[in-house]
Amino acid sequence: MEFVQQTIKTYDQIASEYCIKTRQQKFLDWEENYIMKMLSYISASNPLILDVGCGDGRHCLIIEKNGGRAEGVDLSDGMLNEAKKLYPKGSFRKMDMRKLDFEDGHFDGIWASGCIYHVPKSEVEDVILEFKRILKEQGIIAVNFKLGEGEGMEANPRSYSGSPRYFAYYSEEEMGDIFSKLDFEELESCTYPEEIFGDKIQQMWFRLKGR
Ligand SMILES: C[S@@+](CC[C@H](N)C(=O)[O-])C[C@H]1O[C@@H](n2cnc3c(N)ncnc32)[C@H](O)[C@@H]1O
User: Fold this and answer.
1) Tens-digit pLDDT profile for the chain (211 aa)?
2) What is the largest CA-CA distance in the chain?
3) What is the 3-state secondary structure (H, E, C) of 77-129?
4) Superfamily for domain range 3-208
5) Which SS3 state, helix, strand or coil, does residue 173 take?
6) Which of 60, 115, 167, 194 has the fewest Cβ atoms surrounding its Cβ within 10 A?
7) 161 Cβ contact list (under 8 Å, min separation 6)
């Protein structure tokens, strides 16, 4: 089974446990701030935002609460079921971020939280090119990822019963270089507080340059 399929199988198994963990208010406060920052970079009113790898859909709720329209996509049925339970009126579809079923130039912004590190580094540029394809000119991408080096399947016996997931780690500079090479301008970058999130997580905002 390829890495992505294996990772999705794990999310199907751990969905309810994962969602209890991530819905804590101490995380939501930070996430809401960063979603609002993404929205503040977009001039369109009521902008259309893709929440890619949306997981339990809580960020779609936050996007809509703050004046955006959200479409959530994820490849895990288990996570999508959680999203539909949390936000029955939300729009959620099963989709692989490597091949998004949206027309070119469809979205004002993309919120990519904790998902691009689940594809091997050899595929990450293609994923970002796919994001670029469906973004409007001057569209915004807000992405967060784990800081570090290396990549591979990880199965921590203390986390989710040791179910394996693929992780690729990046430095801030490395991620900035990838987006810059693909015609994005870096707008801002900051690190989530490690004492709250328990991991070194970087949040970055990029704008697609004119085509
Ligand atoms: C760490 S969770 C993040 C969920 C949510 N965005 C958040 O910030 O809590 C990663 C999510 O990415 C999804 N995912 C992983 N690979 C994917 C792919 N190739 N296409 C779509 N979703 C994917 C997983 O199913 C999972 O819901």
Assistant:
1) 689 999 999 999 999 999 999 999 999 999 999 999 999 999 999 999 999 999 999 999 999 999 999 999 999 999 999 999 999 999 999 999 999 999 999 999 999 999 999 999 999 999 999 999 999 999 999 999 999 999 999 997 777 888 899 999 999 999 999 999 999 999 999 999 999 999 999 999 999 997 6
2) 47
3) HHHHHHHHHHCCCCEEEECECCECCCCCCCEEEEEEECCHHHCCHHHHHHHHH
4) Vaccinia Virus protein VP39 (3.40.50.150)
5) helix
6) 194
7) 14
- Which position has the token pair 């409007």? 136
The phi and psi torsions of 51 (rounded to 5 degrees) equal -100, 100
- Which one of 118, 153, 154, 201 would you pick to mutate in the ligand 1 pocket, going by the greatest count of ligand atoms within 8 A of its CB? 118
* Cβ within 8 Å of residue 171, ≥6 positions away: 147, 148, 149
Please give the model's pTM, rounded to 2 decimal places: 0.97
Query: Whose C-alpha lies nearest to ligand 1, atom 14?
Result: 53
Q: For 116, which DSSP code?
A: G
